[in-house]
Amino acid sequence: MGKKLTVKEPKKKHLKLRGDQQSLLAANPQGLNKNYQIGQHRFRDQETERKLLDAANVPVPKLDVMWQVKDLLKDKSRKKKGLIGRSELTEKKLVQLKEQAEKTPGSTRMEVQNLIKSFPKKRDLYMLSALCTHRMLRHTKGELSNIVSGLRMAVLDASTALLSDGLTLNNLRHFFEIYFAYLEKLQRLQQRAYDLVRNDQAYGALRLNLIYAMQITDLLKEKQKGCNAMLGYLTEKFNKSSMANTHFDFLTIKKAVDYINGGMPMKKLAQGQADKIVEYVAGITNTLAKIPVLDPLVNELMKALASTKINMRMQQVAIFSSRLFFEFKIAVTMHDIDTMKKLAKRIYSVNLKMLKTVRNRSIRHASEFDPYLNLALITEFSLNLYKPTERNKMVSAAMKVLERVALLDGSDDRRFMQMSDELMSRLDGLLDADPNLKLDMESDPLADEDLDTEGRLENSESQEAV
Description:
Blueprint: H1 19-27, H2 46-55, H3 91-103, H4 105-118, H5 123-137, H6 144-163, H7 169-196, H8 204-221, H9 224-239, H10 250-261, E1 268-269, E2 272-273, H11 274-288, H12 295-304, H13 310-333, H14 337-357, H15 366-382, H16 388-403, H17 405-408, H18 415-433
Antiparallel strand pairs: 1-2
Helix pairs in contact: 2-7, 2-8, 3-4, 3-5, 4-5, 5-6, 5-7, 6-7, 7-8, 7-9, 9-11, 10-11, 10-12, 11-12, 11-13, 13-14, 13-15, 14-15, 15-16, 15-18, 16-18
Protein backbone atom coordinates (compact mmCIF):
# COMPACT_ATOMS: atom_id res chain seq x y z
CA MET A 1 0.00 0.00 0.00
CA GLY A 2 1.16 3.56 -0.71
CA LYS A 3 1.77 6.13 1.94
CA LYS A 4 -1.38 7.76 3.23
CA LEU A 5 -2.32 11.25 2.15
CA THR A 6 -0.05 13.66 4.00
CA VAL A 7 -1.91 16.96 3.63
CA LYS A 8 -1.43 19.01 6.77
CA GLU A 9 -4.61 18.89 8.82
CA PRO A 10 -6.28 22.24 9.61
CA LYS A 11 -5.90 23.30 13.20
CA LYS A 12 -9.09 22.51 15.08
CA LYS A 13 -9.04 25.43 17.50
CA HIS A 14 -12.66 24.99 18.55
CA LEU A 15 -13.35 21.39 17.53
CA LYS A 16 -11.92 18.05 18.60
CA LEU A 17 -13.28 15.04 16.75
CA ARG A 18 -14.14 11.95 18.73
CA GLY A 19 -14.25 8.43 17.32
CA ASP A 20 -17.97 8.54 16.53
CA GLN A 21 -17.49 11.78 14.57
CA GLN A 22 -14.67 10.24 12.54
CA SER A 23 -17.02 7.35 11.75
CA LEU A 24 -19.59 9.83 10.47
CA LEU A 25 -17.00 11.38 8.18
CA ALA A 26 -16.05 7.99 6.78
CA ALA A 27 -19.66 6.95 6.26
CA ASN A 28 -20.76 10.19 4.53
CA PRO A 29 -17.81 11.58 2.52
CA GLN A 30 -19.99 13.89 0.45
CA GLY A 31 -21.67 15.64 3.39
CA LEU A 32 -25.29 16.76 3.70
CA ASN A 33 -27.71 16.34 0.82
CA LYS A 34 -28.52 19.81 -0.55
CA ASN A 35 -32.22 18.85 -0.77
CA TYR A 36 -32.47 18.33 2.97
CA GLN A 37 -35.94 19.25 4.24
CA ILE A 38 -36.53 20.59 7.76
CA GLY A 39 -39.15 18.74 9.78
CA GLN A 40 -38.97 15.42 7.94
CA HIS A 41 -37.58 13.47 10.91
CA ARG A 42 -39.87 12.84 13.86
CA PHE A 43 -37.04 12.63 16.39
CA ARG A 44 -35.57 16.03 15.50
CA ASP A 45 -36.51 19.48 16.72
CA GLN A 46 -37.09 21.86 13.80
CA GLU A 47 -35.57 24.86 15.56
CA THR A 48 -32.41 22.86 16.26
CA GLU A 49 -32.30 21.80 12.61
CA ARG A 50 -32.45 25.45 11.52
CA LYS A 51 -29.64 26.38 13.90
CA LEU A 52 -27.44 23.59 12.56
CA LEU A 53 -28.09 24.55 8.94
CA ASP A 54 -27.46 28.25 9.62
CA ALA A 55 -24.19 27.52 11.44
CA ALA A 56 -23.04 25.35 8.51
CA ASN A 57 -23.32 28.24 6.03
CA VAL A 58 -19.70 29.02 5.12
CA PRO A 59 -18.52 31.76 2.69
CA VAL A 60 -17.55 29.42 -0.15
CA PRO A 61 -19.58 30.10 -3.33
CA LYS A 62 -19.00 26.61 -4.73
CA LEU A 63 -20.71 25.18 -1.65
CA ASP A 64 -23.53 27.73 -1.36
CA VAL A 65 -24.77 29.98 -4.19
CA MET A 66 -25.86 32.70 -1.76
CA TRP A 67 -22.18 33.69 -1.56
CA GLN A 68 -21.94 34.43 -5.27
CA VAL A 69 -21.12 38.12 -5.73
CA LYS A 70 -21.91 40.19 -8.84
CA ASP A 71 -20.11 43.14 -10.39
CA LEU A 72 -22.41 46.17 -10.05
CA LEU A 73 -21.21 47.55 -13.37
CA LYS A 74 -22.23 44.35 -15.20
CA ASP A 75 -25.36 43.49 -13.22
CA LYS A 76 -28.34 44.56 -15.36
CA SER A 77 -30.79 43.63 -12.61
CA ARG A 78 -29.73 46.62 -10.51
CA LYS A 79 -31.69 49.52 -11.94
CA LYS A 80 -32.07 53.02 -10.61
CA LYS A 81 -35.25 53.44 -8.55
CA GLY A 82 -34.83 57.04 -7.50
CA LEU A 83 -36.30 60.21 -9.02
CA ILE A 84 -35.69 60.76 -12.72
CA GLY A 85 -33.12 63.46 -13.34
CA ARG A 86 -31.71 63.32 -9.83
CA SER A 87 -28.14 64.70 -9.67
CA GLU A 88 -25.22 62.35 -9.17
CA LEU A 89 -23.91 61.54 -5.70
CA THR A 90 -21.10 64.00 -4.96
CA GLU A 91 -17.72 63.18 -3.45
CA LYS A 92 -18.48 65.71 -0.71
CA LYS A 93 -21.60 63.76 0.28
CA LEU A 94 -19.63 60.48 0.38
CA VAL A 95 -17.01 62.04 2.66
CA GLN A 96 -19.79 63.29 4.92
CA LEU A 97 -21.33 59.79 5.07
CA LYS A 98 -17.98 58.24 5.94
CA GLU A 99 -17.61 60.65 8.86
CA GLN A 100 -21.17 59.92 10.02
CA ALA A 101 -20.54 56.17 9.83
CA GLU A 102 -17.95 56.49 12.59
CA LYS A 103 -20.28 58.26 14.99
CA THR A 104 -23.80 57.10 14.13
CA PRO A 105 -23.56 53.88 12.12
CA GLY A 106 -27.22 52.92 12.62
CA SER A 107 -28.86 56.04 11.19
CA THR A 108 -26.13 56.38 8.56
CA ARG A 109 -26.79 52.85 7.36
CA MET A 110 -30.47 53.68 6.85
CA GLU A 111 -29.50 56.74 4.80
CA VAL A 112 -27.01 54.70 2.75
CA GLN A 113 -29.60 52.00 2.05
CA ASN A 114 -32.00 54.66 0.72
CA LEU A 115 -29.24 56.09 -1.49
CA ILE A 116 -28.51 52.63 -2.91
CA LYS A 117 -32.07 52.60 -4.29
CA SER A 118 -31.26 55.74 -6.26
CA PHE A 119 -27.66 54.81 -7.09
CA PRO A 120 -27.62 50.99 -7.26
CA LYS A 121 -24.29 50.85 -9.10
CA LYS A 122 -22.36 53.17 -6.76
CA ARG A 123 -19.78 50.82 -5.19
CA ASP A 124 -18.80 53.27 -2.43
CA LEU A 125 -22.29 53.00 -0.98
CA TYR A 126 -21.97 49.23 -0.62
CA MET A 127 -18.71 49.52 1.28
CA LEU A 128 -20.29 52.19 3.46
CA SER A 129 -23.25 49.92 4.13
CA ALA A 130 -20.87 47.12 5.11
CA LEU A 131 -18.91 49.41 7.44
CA CYS A 132 -22.06 50.73 9.12
CA THR A 133 -23.40 47.20 9.65
CA HIS A 134 -20.11 46.03 11.14
CA ARG A 135 -19.85 49.01 13.47
CA MET A 136 -23.44 48.58 14.61
CA LEU A 137 -22.81 44.95 15.50
CA ARG A 138 -19.26 45.27 16.81
CA HIS A 139 -20.22 45.89 20.44
CA THR A 140 -23.82 44.71 20.45
CA LYS A 141 -24.96 42.12 22.97
CA GLY A 142 -27.80 40.84 20.81
CA GLU A 143 -28.53 37.28 19.69
CA LEU A 144 -25.39 35.71 18.20
CA SER A 145 -27.30 34.28 15.21
CA ASN A 146 -28.57 37.77 14.33
CA ILE A 147 -25.05 39.19 14.60
CA VAL A 148 -23.70 36.51 12.29
CA SER A 149 -26.54 37.11 9.83
CA GLY A 150 -25.84 40.86 9.82
CA LEU A 151 -22.10 40.38 9.33
CA ARG A 152 -22.84 37.92 6.52
CA MET A 153 -24.63 40.69 4.63
CA ALA A 154 -21.78 43.09 5.43
CA VAL A 155 -19.25 40.66 3.88
CA LEU A 156 -21.39 40.42 0.75
CA ASP A 157 -21.68 44.22 0.49
CA ALA A 158 -17.92 44.71 0.99
CA SER A 159 -17.18 41.98 -1.58
CA THR A 160 -19.51 43.66 -4.06
CA ALA A 161 -17.70 46.98 -3.64
CA LEU A 162 -14.30 45.37 -4.30
CA LEU A 163 -15.48 43.37 -7.31
CA SER A 164 -17.11 46.44 -8.88
CA ASP A 165 -13.67 47.87 -9.78
CA GLY A 166 -13.21 49.14 -6.23
CA LEU A 167 -9.70 47.92 -5.38
CA THR A 168 -8.07 50.39 -2.99
CA LEU A 169 -5.94 49.89 0.09
CA ASN A 170 -8.67 51.31 2.32
CA ASN A 171 -11.32 49.03 0.82
CA LEU A 172 -9.05 46.02 1.35
CA ARG A 173 -8.51 47.03 4.96
CA HIS A 174 -12.25 47.40 5.53
CA PHE A 175 -13.01 44.07 3.85
CA PHE A 176 -10.48 42.15 5.96
CA GLU A 177 -11.79 43.76 9.15
CA ILE A 178 -15.37 42.73 8.35
CA TYR A 179 -14.60 39.32 6.85
CA PHE A 180 -12.48 38.03 9.72
CA ALA A 181 -14.85 39.48 12.32
CA TYR A 182 -17.60 37.48 10.61
CA LEU A 183 -15.54 34.27 10.66
CA GLU A 184 -14.79 34.73 14.35
CA LYS A 185 -18.48 35.11 15.20
CA LEU A 186 -19.34 32.19 12.90
CA GLN A 187 -16.91 29.95 14.79
CA ARG A 188 -18.69 30.78 18.04
CA LEU A 189 -22.09 30.11 16.47
CA GLN A 190 -20.86 26.79 15.10
CA GLN A 191 -19.54 25.68 18.46
CA ARG A 192 -22.84 26.52 20.16
CA ALA A 193 -24.77 24.62 17.49
CA TYR A 194 -22.49 21.62 17.80
CA ASP A 195 -22.91 21.58 21.58
CA LEU A 196 -26.67 21.22 21.07
CA VAL A 197 -26.29 17.86 19.32
CA ARG A 198 -22.91 16.65 20.57
CA ASN A 199 -24.38 13.39 21.87
CA ASP A 200 -27.62 13.20 19.89
CA GLN A 201 -27.46 10.52 17.21
CA ALA A 202 -30.74 11.69 15.63
CA TYR A 203 -28.90 14.59 14.00
CA GLY A 204 -26.21 12.45 12.34
CA ALA A 205 -26.22 13.98 8.84
CA LEU A 206 -26.71 17.54 10.11
CA ARG A 207 -23.97 17.07 12.69
CA LEU A 208 -21.63 15.79 9.98
CA ASN A 209 -22.41 18.78 7.80
CA LEU A 210 -21.61 21.09 10.72
CA ILE A 211 -18.29 19.32 11.35
CA TYR A 212 -17.28 19.96 7.75
CA ALA A 213 -18.35 23.59 8.07
CA MET A 214 -16.35 24.07 11.29
CA GLN A 215 -13.20 22.69 9.69
CA ILE A 216 -13.63 24.85 6.57
CA THR A 217 -14.21 27.94 8.72
CA ASP A 218 -10.96 27.20 10.54
CA LEU A 219 -9.16 26.98 7.18
CA LEU A 220 -10.57 30.35 6.13
CA LYS A 221 -9.74 32.01 9.46
CA GLU A 222 -6.13 30.77 9.30
CA LYS A 223 -5.55 33.13 6.36
CA GLN A 224 -5.97 36.21 8.57
CA LYS A 225 -2.28 36.37 9.44
CA GLY A 226 -1.24 36.33 5.77
CA CYS A 227 -3.81 38.97 4.84
CA ASN A 228 -2.66 41.26 7.64
CA ALA A 229 0.98 40.77 6.61
CA MET A 230 0.18 41.74 3.01
CA LEU A 231 -1.80 44.75 4.21
CA GLY A 232 1.07 45.85 6.46
CA TYR A 233 3.57 45.50 3.61
CA LEU A 234 1.42 47.57 1.24
CA THR A 235 0.73 50.21 3.88
CA GLU A 236 4.46 50.66 4.43
CA LYS A 237 5.15 50.85 0.69
CA PHE A 238 2.32 53.26 -0.04
CA ASN A 239 3.29 55.55 2.83
CA LYS A 240 6.75 55.89 1.27
CA SER A 241 5.49 56.68 -2.22
CA SER A 242 3.06 58.83 -4.14
CA MET A 243 0.73 55.81 -4.47
CA ALA A 244 -1.02 56.27 -1.15
CA ASN A 245 -4.82 55.92 -1.40
CA THR A 246 -4.51 54.83 -5.03
CA HIS A 247 -7.47 53.27 -6.81
CA PHE A 248 -6.17 50.29 -8.82
CA ASP A 249 -8.90 50.11 -11.44
CA PHE A 250 -8.83 47.28 -13.99
CA LEU A 251 -8.09 49.63 -16.91
CA THR A 252 -5.02 51.08 -15.16
CA ILE A 253 -3.71 47.60 -14.37
CA LYS A 254 -4.08 46.59 -18.04
CA LYS A 255 -2.29 49.76 -19.15
CA ALA A 256 0.58 49.05 -16.76
CA VAL A 257 0.88 45.51 -18.15
CA ASP A 258 0.85 46.85 -21.71
CA TYR A 259 3.73 49.19 -20.91
CA ILE A 260 5.72 46.29 -19.44
CA ASN A 261 4.96 44.13 -22.49
CA GLY A 262 6.18 47.01 -24.64
CA GLY A 263 9.48 47.24 -22.77
CA MET A 264 8.57 50.35 -20.74
CA PRO A 265 8.29 49.13 -17.12
CA MET A 266 9.30 52.55 -15.73
CA LYS A 267 6.46 54.35 -17.52
CA LYS A 268 4.52 56.63 -15.21
CA LEU A 269 0.75 56.45 -14.91
CA ALA A 270 -1.50 58.56 -12.73
CA GLN A 271 -1.34 55.85 -10.04
CA GLY A 272 2.44 55.34 -10.20
CA GLN A 273 5.15 53.44 -12.09
CA ALA A 274 3.92 50.59 -14.32
CA ASP A 275 6.09 47.82 -12.83
CA LYS A 276 5.24 48.86 -9.27
CA ILE A 277 1.52 48.83 -9.99
CA VAL A 278 1.79 45.29 -11.36
CA GLU A 279 3.99 44.16 -8.47
CA TYR A 280 1.53 45.35 -5.84
CA VAL A 281 -1.59 44.10 -7.65
CA ALA A 282 -0.03 40.66 -8.23
CA GLY A 283 0.76 40.41 -4.50
CA ILE A 284 -2.78 41.43 -3.60
CA THR A 285 -4.26 38.91 -6.06
CA ASN A 286 -2.17 36.05 -4.68
CA THR A 287 -3.47 36.79 -1.18
CA LEU A 288 -7.10 37.16 -2.27
CA ALA A 289 -6.90 33.82 -4.13
CA LYS A 290 -7.31 32.14 -0.73
CA ILE A 291 -10.61 33.92 -0.02
CA PRO A 292 -13.30 32.02 -1.98
CA VAL A 293 -15.96 34.74 -1.78
CA LEU A 294 -13.60 37.00 -3.79
CA ASP A 295 -13.06 34.47 -6.59
CA PRO A 296 -14.78 36.74 -9.17
CA LEU A 297 -12.43 39.60 -8.23
CA VAL A 298 -9.39 37.33 -8.56
CA ASN A 299 -10.62 36.31 -12.03
CA GLU A 300 -10.88 39.95 -13.11
CA LEU A 301 -7.46 40.80 -11.71
CA MET A 302 -5.87 37.81 -13.46
CA LYS A 303 -7.38 38.94 -16.75
CA ALA A 304 -6.03 42.45 -16.16
CA LEU A 305 -2.57 41.05 -15.34
CA ALA A 306 -2.41 38.83 -18.46
CA SER A 307 0.95 39.30 -20.16
CA THR A 308 3.24 37.85 -22.82
CA LYS A 309 6.26 38.16 -20.51
CA ILE A 310 7.46 34.85 -19.08
CA ASN A 311 8.04 36.15 -15.54
CA MET A 312 4.51 37.56 -15.41
CA ARG A 313 3.05 34.34 -16.82
CA MET A 314 4.85 32.49 -14.03
CA GLN A 315 3.25 34.89 -11.58
CA GLN A 316 -0.15 33.98 -13.03
CA VAL A 317 0.53 30.27 -12.57
CA ALA A 318 1.57 30.92 -8.97
CA ILE A 319 -1.71 32.75 -8.27
CA PHE A 320 -3.84 30.14 -10.00
CA SER A 321 -2.02 27.32 -8.18
CA SER A 322 -2.48 29.11 -4.86
CA ARG A 323 -6.23 29.14 -5.41
CA LEU A 324 -6.32 25.49 -6.50
CA PHE A 325 -4.24 24.37 -3.50
CA PHE A 326 -6.71 26.09 -1.17
CA GLU A 327 -9.65 24.41 -2.94
CA PHE A 328 -7.76 21.13 -2.60
CA LYS A 329 -7.52 21.66 1.17
CA ILE A 330 -11.27 22.22 1.36
CA ALA A 331 -11.84 19.01 -0.63
CA VAL A 332 -9.53 17.12 1.77
CA THR A 333 -11.50 18.51 4.71
CA MET A 334 -14.73 17.22 3.15
CA HIS A 335 -13.21 13.86 2.17
CA ASP A 336 -14.28 14.61 -1.41
CA ILE A 337 -12.00 12.22 -3.32
CA ASP A 338 -13.31 13.06 -6.81
CA THR A 339 -12.72 16.80 -6.36
CA MET A 340 -9.30 16.14 -4.81
CA LYS A 341 -8.24 14.12 -7.87
CA LYS A 342 -9.54 16.74 -10.28
CA LEU A 343 -7.80 19.63 -8.49
CA ALA A 344 -4.56 17.71 -8.04
CA LYS A 345 -4.41 16.92 -11.75
CA ARG A 346 -5.02 20.57 -12.65
CA ILE A 347 -2.27 21.80 -10.30
CA TYR A 348 0.13 19.17 -11.61
CA SER A 349 -0.63 19.86 -15.28
CA VAL A 350 -0.59 23.68 -15.10
CA ASN A 351 2.80 23.72 -13.37
CA LEU A 352 4.28 21.03 -15.62
CA LYS A 353 3.23 23.07 -18.64
CA MET A 354 5.00 26.12 -17.24
CA LEU A 355 8.16 24.09 -16.56
CA LYS A 356 8.17 22.96 -20.19
CA THR A 357 8.10 26.64 -21.18
CA VAL A 358 10.98 27.69 -18.88
CA ARG A 359 12.95 24.43 -18.81
CA ASN A 360 16.41 26.06 -19.00
CA ARG A 361 15.63 29.36 -17.30
CA SER A 362 17.79 30.37 -14.35
CA ILE A 363 16.00 30.44 -10.97
CA ARG A 364 16.69 33.68 -9.07
CA HIS A 365 13.34 34.51 -7.48
CA ALA A 366 10.73 32.59 -5.49
CA SER A 367 8.15 32.99 -8.28
CA GLU A 368 10.56 31.19 -10.66
CA PHE A 369 10.88 28.28 -8.24
CA ASP A 370 7.12 28.04 -7.63
CA PRO A 371 6.35 25.60 -10.50
CA TYR A 372 8.99 23.16 -9.18
CA LEU A 373 7.65 23.50 -5.65
CA ASN A 374 4.00 23.13 -6.69
CA LEU A 375 4.69 20.06 -8.82
CA ALA A 376 6.54 18.33 -5.96
CA LEU A 377 3.97 19.26 -3.30
CA ILE A 378 0.92 18.14 -5.23
CA THR A 379 2.71 14.88 -6.08
CA GLU A 380 3.39 14.29 -2.39
CA PHE A 381 -0.08 15.31 -1.22
CA SER A 382 -2.14 13.44 -3.80
CA LEU A 383 -0.05 10.37 -4.62
CA ASN A 384 -2.32 7.91 -2.85
CA LEU A 385 -5.28 9.00 -4.99
CA TYR A 386 -3.96 7.33 -8.15
CA LYS A 387 -3.20 3.91 -9.55
CA PRO A 388 0.41 2.59 -9.43
CA THR A 389 1.18 3.49 -13.07
CA GLU A 390 0.03 7.09 -12.55
CA ARG A 391 1.91 7.32 -9.25
CA ASN A 392 5.12 6.14 -10.93
CA LYS A 393 4.78 8.74 -13.66
CA MET A 394 4.11 11.59 -11.20
CA VAL A 395 6.95 10.75 -8.81
CA SER A 396 9.40 10.22 -11.67
CA ALA A 397 8.49 13.56 -13.25
CA ALA A 398 8.73 15.43 -9.93
CA MET A 399 12.12 13.91 -9.10
CA LYS A 400 13.53 14.69 -12.53
CA VAL A 401 12.47 18.33 -12.59
CA LEU A 402 13.77 18.84 -9.05
CA GLU A 403 17.16 17.45 -10.09
CA ARG A 404 17.42 20.29 -12.61
CA VAL A 405 17.23 22.93 -9.87
CA ALA A 406 20.87 22.33 -8.84
CA LEU A 407 21.97 23.44 -12.32
CA LEU A 408 19.53 26.34 -12.62
CA ASP A 409 19.73 27.88 -9.13
CA GLY A 410 20.96 31.44 -9.60
CA SER A 411 20.46 32.62 -6.01
CA ASP A 412 23.46 33.80 -4.00
CA ASP A 413 22.86 31.37 -1.14
CA ARG A 414 21.72 28.41 -3.31
CA ARG A 415 18.50 28.32 -1.33
CA PHE A 416 16.44 26.86 -4.17
CA MET A 417 18.77 23.89 -4.50
CA GLN A 418 18.49 23.31 -0.76
CA MET A 419 14.68 23.41 -0.98
CA SER A 420 14.66 21.00 -3.93
CA ASP A 421 16.95 18.62 -2.03
CA GLU A 422 14.50 18.61 0.87
CA LEU A 423 11.57 17.96 -1.46
CA MET A 424 13.43 15.10 -3.16
CA SER A 425 14.18 13.60 0.23
CA ARG A 426 10.46 13.59 1.04
CA LEU A 427 9.64 11.97 -2.30
CA ASP A 428 12.36 9.40 -1.61
CA GLY A 429 10.48 8.59 1.59
CA LEU A 430 7.37 7.84 -0.47
CA LEU A 431 9.39 5.52 -2.70
CA ASP A 432 10.81 3.68 0.31
CA ALA A 433 7.34 3.28 1.82
CA ASP A 434 5.73 1.84 -1.33
CA PRO A 435 7.45 -1.11 -3.06
CA ASN A 436 5.16 -0.62 -6.08
CA LEU A 437 6.68 2.80 -6.81
CA LYS A 438 9.52 2.72 -9.33
CA LEU A 439 11.30 5.64 -10.95
CA ASP A 440 11.17 5.88 -14.73
CA MET A 441 14.66 7.02 -15.68
CA GLU A 442 14.07 6.99 -19.45
CA SER A 443 11.27 9.45 -20.22
CA ASP A 444 11.73 13.22 -20.15
CA PRO A 445 8.80 14.89 -18.28
CA LEU A 446 9.59 18.19 -20.01
CA ALA A 447 9.44 16.79 -23.55
CA ASP A 448 6.74 18.48 -25.63
CA GLU A 449 5.08 15.19 -26.59
CA ASP A 450 4.34 14.48 -22.90
CA LEU A 451 2.35 17.66 -22.42
CA ASP A 452 -0.98 16.96 -20.72
CA THR A 453 -3.87 18.76 -22.41
CA GLU A 454 -5.11 19.76 -18.96
CA GLY A 455 -2.02 21.91 -18.57
CA ARG A 456 -4.00 24.95 -19.69
CA LEU A 457 -5.95 26.89 -17.10
CA GLU A 458 -9.43 25.42 -17.12
CA ASN A 459 -11.06 28.48 -15.58
CA SER A 460 -12.37 30.46 -18.57
CA GLU A 461 -11.72 33.78 -16.90
CA SER A 462 -8.12 32.84 -16.23
CA GLN A 463 -7.10 31.18 -19.48
CA GLU A 464 -6.10 34.48 -21.02
CA ALA A 465 -3.70 35.08 -18.15
CA VAL A 466 -1.22 32.30 -18.89
